[in-house]
Amino acid sequence: xxKSCRLSAALLGEDSEISHxxxxxxxxxxxxxxxxxAAQPSWCRIYHQSHLAGVVVVVLHEMSQVHFYRFYLQFKxxxxxxxxxxxxxPSTNFLASLYGERTDLRPQNTAxxxxxxxxxxVTKSSDLQCDPIIRRYGEKKRGLxxxxxxxxxxxxxxxxIKGSPGCKDYISTECDQQRTDSSPLFGLDCExxxxxxxxxxxxxxxxxxxxxxxxxxxxxxxxxxxxxxTRFSGITKKMLLPVKTRLSDIQTRLKKMLPHDAVLVGxxxxxxxxxxxxxxxxxxxxxxxxxxxxxxxxxxxFLAKAVLGKEIQCEQKLGHDPxxxxxxxxxxAQFFIEQGPAKVVAELNLEMLLTAEKLAEVxxxxxxxxxxxxxxxxxxxxxxxxxxxxFLDCLxxxxxxxxxxxxQGVDSSSLCQSNLSTSNKQILQRALExxxxxxxxxxxxxxxxxxxxxxxxxxLYEKVRSKLTDMLTIYAGPFEERFxxxxxxxxxGRCGPIQSLTVVTETFQPYVRxxxxxxxxxxxxxxxxxxxxxxxxxxxVQRPVTAALLDCDVxxxxxxxxxxxxxxxxxxxxxxxxxxxxxxxxFSHLKDLEMLFLPKDFQSGKHRNCCFLKFQKxxxxxxxxxxxxxxxxxxxxxxxxxxxxSGHLWRWIWQMNHSSxxxxxxxxxxxxxxxxxxxxxxxxxxxxxxxxxxxxxxxxQNNTLCIxxxxxxx
Length: 714
Prior knowledge:
Alpha-Beta Plaits, Nucleotide-bd_a/b_plait_sf, exonuclease, REXO5 exonuclease, five-stranded parallel β-sheet, RNA-binding, RBD_domain_sf
């Protein structure tokens, strides 16, 4: 797509840590755009935010980056699809800090109902001209033809247009007679299900100007149904089994029923006509008729209650009633035409009504989640003060209802109502149905209480630390009795920064143990120095032989394929005195070079003798690998290979190796045995979770921002 939404955050190594405030910035701007003072995040950039289809946050409750790296091979989809990976700085209350400073909101004029009775709801005449309805239609009362969409407006709002590339096989209603202010109005509404083809019609309703139902028909989709969307459509598999009516039958009937000067009325009618694969030249769209600023739209349910005083789409009913919705849209258009724009704006004041409704809803949700007894009484007697709202409240006020799904109380700080399920599978099923219909969703999966004991987490940490330490370590030898240790250190130092080098004396001939600071250096030593002559001896280079490293080769291969390392290469053998500017100049002729990362010691601030180069294209990275191996820079021969831990893992390894208190030392033998017993179960659970995320991810629309959070256990 020419204007597809994208996130730019191409960061390597030490830049891979962000705060909760920075994550808050990203989510707020993604969800709200420039409304409610939302600005572009300070640390990354979202391009074409207005094209964003939605935001989905997947929270893996009680899981941390320890789980991700311990079960790295099980998270096959997660590590190959999610391009950006960051460490979140610690927080005492993860969800509360993520959603901002949560405080209670006290509406100034909470409406008991939505019918305006107080003079406070009457718009001042000075404000009238600023209203989007007045700006669009003026104050003067007009006939219905003034409110039909122009051809340009239809194109802009994705209506099927005759001759458009995507409407080649669409059927015209052939209602091509000139419209007048006395042309008949017809309300139209469809219910759709999701099929392999996309949205297909399952029910069609048509009502005349008097509200009489002319058509209310079930329709059998042509393609295989993937999701009946029963909760919204009311359609079930059982209902469609005996149905013989096809889309072509409905198209024929509608053509016969509609007079040649018919004006169709509906709420977001473009979706209905697209699903019907029909073209109609004259339409009134009530979602655009009751205009709002910045492309926002009122929901049909809200307009029916605020304008007509009618309750539709009640939660007690299974799905929407298309006849009820078609009739409501028709009556809304008739009301607007009869009353005129000025009266609609001055007497209804829809924006204030919507704000009052949303704030009242937020307050009700808070009250529902409060414990019974004196706490509630205190809340009623002493209304809380208004302070900084979180952006979930802002979403509700703007008419967008966040979706919260989970086993735990996702809404620990009473953000809004949450839907609790009993298993991750149920949560997934609900998410597959509801996420496509929501602009902001929080989906929470969890392991279960038996897997969140602190000693189990500490045991996992110790296993990850031990395995990474072994992967950073190589043994080399045998050497002559009086070998030159300085020569050995120099030879192995060319592969990358060494953390420690010791001589092994337990063997008949001397060996050395080298622990590197980066995985690439250890791997490069194994690949380039095994069988080489070092300090006068032909040596063997290998990693420690432990049970944990039996799958080391598989892990190395998977790290190379990790999406975070795509187009990134590691270069070693640099002089420590070289600056980033020197290296930029040295590597400037390499094709498609995007960025350079020169690691440094966080404590001393000194540069290491290696760097990472990121290229725009993977092939350019491969070409650079061939070119760089054997290069000499300032008298030093360079060595390079594909990156293994260029981003998030690089920083995590460094922090783990340099943390003052090594976690896990206090783990008792019995507890480690208990961990071993449940690890097999955990592997299966992690694999299943990865599969759930894969299914959810594949169901998302293009241009959806998806974030997966490992909030940790404390």
